[in-house]
Design a protein that fits this description.
Length: 107
């Protein structure tokens, strides 16, 4: 299986390309049947909220939202770290053996 950037593989791209159409609800249905709509939220897919056939919002289960935020944070941290490494010179780093000795010198 061929691995692509950011931990994706070709199978992931294939699965993304054949996604099902997300669930959609009108904003008026959301106003009238909010409890039912929230109870029926899918564990993996968003529910799109439409007004005059245009998406005006997206509803997700809290755990899905938290997972998305965690992934975004990981991407941001990774990109920031990559930039810092690229901007650093070799003298800014210490070899692992020296760091290990310093960390575990009292043991």
């Amino acid at each position: 299986m061929q691995i692509l950037g950011r931990g994706l593989c070709i199978a992931d791209l294939y699965n993304m390309s054949i996604r099902t159409i997300p669930r959609m609800v009108s904003i008026s249905d959301l106003q009238r049947k909010a409890r039912q709509i929230f109870e029926e939220l899918d564990d993996a897919e968003p529910t799109l909220v439409l007004s005059r056939n245009r998406t005006v919002g997206v509803v997700l289960k809290p755990n899905i939202y938290e997972e998305l935020m965690d992934e975004l944070e990981d991407i941001y941290i990774g990109e920031r770290l990559e930039k810092l490494v690229q901007e650093s010179s070799e003298s800014d780093f210490e070899d692992w053996d020296s760091v290990k000795q310093e960390l575990f010198k009292d043991e």
